[in-house]
Design a protein that fits this description.
Elements (H helix, E strand, L loop, with lengths): L14 E4 L17 E4 L4 E3 L4 E11 L4 E6 L2 H7 L1 E3 L4 E4 L5 E8 L6 E3 L4 E9 L32
Length: 159
């Protein structure tokens, strides 16, 4: 598969407006990546346990029936403790404001400096469906039932 040659008719067209001259248009690092890199439009210093809404300098127009989901970058989170506060953040198709990424530094000792142009998050564009919500008196039974929140084990050596 070569860049841009994979059935482009299946790729949603996302229009991108640069709000500042140095804004970086989202791009995929590899052809088969799910997320396109989002870059910072400003220098930001994240002190330990601090949160900042980091601007990208971009506005986007997602096609109807799609949404954008902002995910953390694995290297940034595993190496530096910097992650997206509300991961994944959601960008609705009708939103036309600046894309900003709420980052938090979970490192208890070290500040982390983000420089303009640094990759700070990933944008995953997905098709979404609107559900019909119907109130009922009772739900059908399943094998799983009400089990959740670790009910299948595996987190403490127990099965």
């Amino acid at each position: 598969m070569t860049h841009g040659s994979a059935d482009d008719s299946r790729r949603p067209d996302v229009r991108v407006q640069a709000l500042v001259p140095h804004a970086v248009v989202p791009a995929y690092a590899h052809e088969d990546d799910a997320g396109a890199d989002l870059c910072a439009a400003e220098h930001v210093v994240l002190e330990p346990f601090a949160r900042e809404l980091v601007p990208t300098g971009l506005a986007i127009a997602l096609p109807e029936g799609h949404a954008g989901f902002i995910h953390p970058r694995s290297g940034l989170s595993s190496k530096h403790g910097v992650t997206v506060v509300n991961a994944p953040g959601t960008i609705d198709a009708g939103y036309r404001g600046e894309v900003k990424v709420p980052l938090v530094n979970l490192d208890p000792h070290s500040a982390y400096t983000i420089r303009r142009g640094d990759r700070i998050a990933q944008l995953v564009v997905q098709q979404v469906a609107h559900a019909r919500f119907t109130a009922v008196a009772q739900l059908d039974d399943t094998v799983r039932g009400t089990g959740g929140f670790g009910s299948t084990g595996g987190f403490d050596g127990a099965s």
